[in-house]
Specification:
This protein has no helices and 3 strands. It has 49 residues and is an all-beta fold. Strands 1-2-3 form a 3-stranded antiparallel beta sheet, with no helix packed on it.
């Protein structure tokens, strides 16, 4: 398994970025998102309509 390029923690949640634009000619980002048992993922919100 590939080492993450960056890891971001938000409380108990963890985002591991595996590929970014530099790796994919600016076409996509690949990440893993971990939510520990008993934790909840915050809902998606947007301010633009």
């Amino acid at each position: 398994m590939q080492e993450p390029k960056e890891i971001i923690h938000v409380g108990a949640l963890e985002l591991r970025f595996l590929l970014d634009g530099d790796d994919t000619n600016q076409r996509l980002v690949v990440f893993e998102f971990s939510v520990p048992p008993g934790q909840r993922c915050p809902p998606h919100t947007t301010t633009k309509r």
